[in-house]
Each structure stands twice: as structure tokens, then as C-alpha cells.
Amino acid sequence: MFSKSIGVIDVTSAEILALKEACVLFSKSRWVQLFSLILETDCESVVVWFNKPVSNPFAFKKLVEECIESCVGCSWSIRAVSREANCSADKLAKSGICRPTPLYWTSSNNDQ
What we know:
Elements: E1 2-3, H1 11-27, E2 37-41, H2 44-51, H3 58-70, E3 76-80, H4 87-95, E4 103-104
Parallel strand pairs: 2-3
Antiparallel strand pairs: 1-4
Protein name: RNase H type-1 domain-containing protein
């Protein structure tokens, strides 16, 4: 998990940027060869855009493409989760608003 300030932007762009950050972090980690990345978002439109890039609205097309490109070489999937299930991510996002430096936290059940 991570939390960092991204400035003032719309919610959808913030969601896509968070997914991109997760892809970049995962692709550079030691886990990339051992595990698949599961992206979760409470924005169902974003899930559709990632799974069917031709459906992206023009305003988000480049951002979604950059995010997908950052996952090249990784095994990954994306799924929609309810807002209630996404409360930890929401808290981290809100805490990042005023965060002067990024926060990164990793955990592994088997210390891979």
C-alpha cells in the first residue's frame, strides 16, 4: 500500500494514477516473478476502460494507456470492489493529501 500527495485533481484521474503507481511499484519489485498483481478499484468505469481500452473517454485515454503500459511484463488483473471494501485505500488516499513525502508499506505472509 502507499500514500502520497498528487495535488488537486478529479477523482477518476486520482484513481487511475493510484493504479499506475501500484503497477510501477509491482513491476520493480522482487514479487513480479512470483505473483500476479490484482488491482482493485471502486470505480467500475475504470475497470471497463482497462479491460477494453477502446472504450476509454478521450479525457482519460492517455492516462489509462500509460497505466496499462506500466504493467507490461507483469501478470495482472483488475476488478471492481465495493466502496465499503475499499475503505483502507480511501483512508490512505485521504491521508496523502497533506503528506510531504510518500509512504510505502509492504507486507507478505511468507516473506517473499
